[in-house]
Automatic annotation (TrEMBL):
It comes from the Bacteria. It comes from Roseovarius atlanticus. It holds the Pfam family DUF2842. The chain crosses the membrane at residues 12-30, 42-60. InterPro entries: DUF2842. The lineage of its organism: Bacteria, Pseudomonadati, Pseudomonadota, Alphaproteobacteria, Rhodobacterales. Keywords: Membrane, Transmembrane, Transmembrane helix. This is DUF2842 domain-containing protein.
Length: 76
């Protein structure tokens, strides 16, 4: 079931304003836990941040696709 243009716009706003900040907090806590638990280096933290920074968008890509474009269903 495909989302309508309005639904994708609303969901993208919810994701960017609520879910993404929560995801950032989880990512920072995860790297802090890794640093305290396993004494990882700065390069390992960087790799974890890069992987987590890319991982959040992969399942949400269809929601954000075309949101910045004009509504395709709108009447001219």
């Amino acid at each position: 079931m495909a989302l309508s243009y309005k639904a994708r716009r609303r969901w993208s706003l919810v994701i960017l304003l609520i879910a993404l900040p929560l995801y950032i907090v989880v990512a920072v806590n995860l790297t802090d836990w890794l640093r305290m638990r396993y004494d990882v280096g700065i390069l390992t933290e960087l790799v974890v941040f890069i992987v987590l920074g890319i991982a959040w968008i992969l399942p949400l890509k269809p929601v954000f696709r075309g949101v910045g474009q004009p509504d395709p269903d709108a009447r001219d």
